[in-house]
Structures are given as C-alpha cells and as structure tokens.
Amino acid sequence: MGVLPLSFYERDTATVARELLGKVLVHRASESPTSGKIVEVEAYYGKGDPASRASRRRTRLNELMWGRGGLAFVYMVHAVWLFNVTTEREEVPGAVLIRALEPVAGVGLMHRRRRVSNERELTSGPGKLTRAMGITHEHHGLDLTGARSELVIVEGEVERFEVASSHRIGVSADLERKLRFYISSNPHVSK
C-alpha cells in the first residue's frame, strides 16, 4: 500500500478530509507498529472559520497550519493529544482532525495503552486514537509523505461505503457548512 503523496494533501481541506476516509494511518513505532482505518474526520480552514486554531492570526501554536500539506499537526486539548494533518498549499491554513479509526494492526498494544477491553472504545475519538496509536507531541511536524517516516497514511483496501456529514463536534461556533465526515455504518465512529 502506497504512502499518500504531497499532491493528495495540497488541495481543498474538505476534499482532503472526505477522501481520507478509508485510508490507513500507520505508526511505525519501535516497540511495535499500529495502524487503523480512518473512519471519521473534521476539516478546519483559516480566517473566517471560527472553530479553527488559525481563525484569527498566525501564532507559534498554529504556525504549522500555514506550512505545506502532509505534515502532522499535534496539539493538546483537555490533557489529550489530538492528531491533525495539514492541507492546502503554503500560506493557506488548513488541517484535518482525525477523529476516529477502526483498529487494523497492533490491536493488543492498543489495548495495553488504553487499558480498555472493548475494541470499539480503543480509537473512537480523537484523544482515544492518539493514546492507542502512541501519538504525542514528539510527532508534531513529521512529514507524513515520506516513505520512511514514523507516521504515514497509506491507501486502504478498495471498498464501497456511504459517507455521512454533520457539523463539527464540540465547537462553540461553527460554519454553516457541514465539515465533519464519517463512514456512516462504521461502529468505530465517535458518539
């Protein structure tokens, strides 16, 4: 399965978000690799998007959103790491929050990291998936398009699924446009 190229990410953020569904996030950790199929995402733009970290101005914390696409943008909210992928071209802020995964490989390690027995609880939320996958701020800024990168997103199995959309979860102000996308029948989507 090939690593998604830079050209995949340097497009409209909502398009990238939608097309990330069904792709596989892989963490080639030294202790053991883990991976999961992306089943839920949210798109975030820059200025004019009240829920975005880049809505007002460029800061040290959101600087990466103005870089090129295909970079790991990891930050903490409520004491948990959240994993995003940058999108768009340089100087146009955009990122996709990976909200939920369906576990694929390294499931035993995910259970040990999360200390839960129910597989549906392993990666069914943005903080849950980073803990299960071992993603931390150390991964911030990693190039996801490098074939040898520790974190990559690869093509998944070719399958047909229905994509549903809604407003983003847990934001105090949102755009009228629905920017949360998920595989409607997948049990690993967050609640």
Describe the structure.
- The chain has 191 residues and is α+β, with helices and mostly antiparallel strands.
- Helix content is 15%, strand content 27%.
- It has a single domain, classed as Roll (3-methyladenine DNA Glycosylase, Chain A), CATH 3.10.300.10.
- The protein has helices spanning 6-9, 13-20, 107-114, 126-133, and strands at residues 24-27, 34-44, 72-77, 80-86, 95-105, 151-154, 163-166, 180-183.
- Strands 1, 2, 3, 4, 5, 6, 7 and 8 form an eight-stranded antiparallel beta sheet that branches.
- A hairpin with an 8-residue loop joins strand 4 and strand 5.
- The longest helix has 8 residues, at 13-20.
- The mean pLDDT is 94.
What's this, in brief?
With 191 residues, this protein is α+β, with helices and mostly antiparallel strands. 15% of the residues lie in helices and 27% in strands. The chain has one domain: Methylpurine-DNA glycosylase (MPG) (3-methyladenine DNA Glycosylase, Chain A, Roll).
Strand-helix topology:
Elements: H1 6-9, H2 13-20, E1 24-27, E2 34-44, E3 72-77, E4 80-86, E5 95-105, H3 107-114, H4 126-133, E6 151-154, E7 163-166, E8 180-183
Antiparallel strand pairs: 1-2, 1-6, 2-5, 2-8, 3-4, 4-5, 7-8
Helix pairs in contact: 3-4
Quick tags:
191 residues, alpha+beta, 3-methyladenine DNA Glycosylase, Chain A, 8-stranded antiparallel β-sheet, globular
Q: How large, in whole angstroms, is the Cα Rg?
A: 15 Å
- SSE arrangement, N to C: HHEEEEEHHEEE
CATH level-1 class: Alpha Beta
Helix content: 10-25%
Largest sheet: 8 strands, antiparallel
Q: Please indicate the percent range of residues in DSSP E strands (runs of 2 or more).
A: 25-35%
Uncertain residue segments: none
Mean pLDDT across residues: 94
Structural class based on helices, strands and sheet pairing:
alpha+beta
Shape: globular
The tally of helices reads 4
Overall number of structural domains: 1
Distance between the termini: 30 Å
CATH fold description: 3-methyladenine DNA Glycosylase, Chain A
Tell me which CATH architecture applies here.
Roll
**Could you name the CATH homologous superfamily?**
Methylpurine-DNA glycosylase (MPG)
Tally of strands: 8
